[in-house]
Specification:
The chain is of the alpha+beta class and 429 residues long. It has helices at 24-75, 105-108, 145-193, 209-242, 244-258, 265-289, 302-309, 333-351, 398-408; strands spanning 2-4, 92-96, 113-120, 123-133, 136-143, 298-301, 319-324, 327-331, 356-362, 365-370, 412-417, 423-428. It contains nine helices and twelve strands. Helix 4 runs antiparallel to helix 6 and helix 5 (244-258) runs antiparallel to helix 6 (265-289).
Length: 429
């Protein structure tokens, strides 16, 4: 006796957290301000670097020039200046330490070496002091007013250039932010235009590869959401469809009890079986709507259960023929019952009142065969679709539910016409 263990599909749909609405205007403003800030920072840094580079180059050049000039004056024993520093228009003056009447106290107190920003007579000077030996020193004073004026002009030029850069950067940042976020704004408009009552609409690609990733993710999420809604809708339809049979059995048993059945144990047993079967069917149908949850399974003796589950209406005149071999299966009884009852009802309906239905069990498969007119070739690919109704009537939900449950257990369910007329439904475990 074979025992078949099913593989339950654990794949599920992850529900994403609802995202807050995107405010494009605020995002555009932040992006524009970021671009503007980066541009201003870059322009300021570059301007300061150029200004510092020019300042130090000019200062080093001036120091080198004054040093060579002082060396030349010392070597040629040039005559010192006869006017005190800070007087007249001369920018450069040469003094010796013996000129005590001309040397300012600020200059006389300086040690040998280079001294910058020495204020003499209200003017700022650069002073170079050289030790000559014997306690004698040479002084070269350079009036740096022109350097200060040029520095101020450079600063004003830098500020003016920075202001121009700010204006251009502000215009460019707003334009770039608007163009960069235009596809996102179009995507937001599409999302806002979606109708939650309609299933199937999808977002159109906006032309930006980066944003297309978002639209593809949203489309995939909406597809999963549509599948969840479809499962809920199918569950409600399947529940009403599958519970009709046990309710009919219970109603018939209650009528027998009310009529005073000579043996009340039989109607009560039928009610008990119908209630248990309804509970098992509900467990299977609930799992149909919850992909991560499997219904409870146990070892099933299909040979005996199929005979018990074939509890047709008393008015049914279709002949049933059983060809059963022992088969044990580890599965949810509700799932197997829902699949088998749907296949049996469809076969009885197709065979008609004077027809015959054969139920075969063996070789790890269950087959339900009828001798009805068969299925039109154009309808055969559609029989497992939701709410498809063939010419033999029905609700259009039974085979869809049966196939869904079979796939959940990794079983194969097929329905084909057979030679000589009729159809054969096969459930392979």
């Amino acid at each position: 006796m074979a025992t078949v263990e099913p593989r339950w599909d654990e794949a599920g749909d992850g529900a994403a957290a609802a995202a807050p609405p995107v405010r494009i205007a605020g995002l555009r403003r932040r992006l524009a301000l970021s671009l503007l800030g980066l541009t201003i920072a870059a322009a300021t840094f570059q301007g300061l670097c150029f200004w510092a580079l020019e300042y130090w180059i000019e200062r080093d050049s001036l120091i080198s020039l004054l040093s060579r000039e002082l060396d030349y004056m010392i070597e040629t024993d040039a005559l010192p200046s006869t006017e005190p520093p800070g007087v007249g228009s001369l920018r450069q003056r040469y003094y010796r330490s013996d000129q005590t009447t001309l040397l300012n106290p600020e200059i006389a107190a300086l040690e040998p070496g280079w001294h910058g920003d020495v204020t003499i007579a209200g003017r700022r000077h650069l002073v170079l002091v050289r030790e000559l030996g014997g306690g004698e020193r040479a002084y070269l004073a350079y009036d740096s007013r022109r350097l200060q004026v040029r520095g101020k002009r450079q600063l004003l030029s830098f500020l003016f250039g920075l202001a121009v850069v700010v204006v251009i950067a502000l215009w460019g940042a707003q334009r770039l932010a608007r163009e960069a976020l235009m596809p996102l704004a179009g995507l937001v408009r599409q999302i806002r235009a979606l109708d939650p009552e309609q299933r199937g609409p999808r977002l159109v690609a906006v032309g930006d590869p980066d944003l297309n990733v978002i639209s593809d993710a949203l489309n995939a999420y909406m597809a999963r959401l549509d599948a969840v809604i479809e499962r809920e809708r199918v569950f409600s339809s399947a529940a009403s469809h599958e519970l009709r049979t046990p309710l009919t059995v219970i109603r018939g048993a209650v009528e027998l009890l009310e009529a005073g059945a000579p043996d009340p144990k039989r109607p009560l047993a039928r009610i008990s079986r119908a209630v248990a079967q309804a509970q098992a069917d509900l467990d299977a149908l609930l799992a149909l709507g919850r992909l991560r949850e499997a219904p409870p399974s146990r070892v099933l003796d299909l040979e005996g259960l199929l005979l018990e589950w074939a509890d047709l209406d008393d008015t049914t005149t279709t002949r049933l023929q059983w060809r059963l071999a022992p088969l044990r299966l580890i599965a949810s009884p509700g799932s197997v019952h829902v699949i088998f009852s749907n296949l049996l009802r469809n076969a009885v309906r197709a065979a008609g009142p004077n027809g015959e239905v054969i139920v075969e069990l063996g070789d790890n498969a269950l087959r339900v065969i009828d001798d009805g007119p068969g299925i039109p070739p154009n309808e055969l690919p559609l029989v497992f679709e939701s709410h498809f109704r063939g010419r033999d009537g029905g609700t259009g939900i039974g085979l869809y539910v049966a196939r869904t449950l079979a796939r959940r257990h990794d079983w194969q369910l097929s329905l084909n016409n057979r030679e000589g007329g009729g159809a054969v439904a096969e459930l392979r475990f």
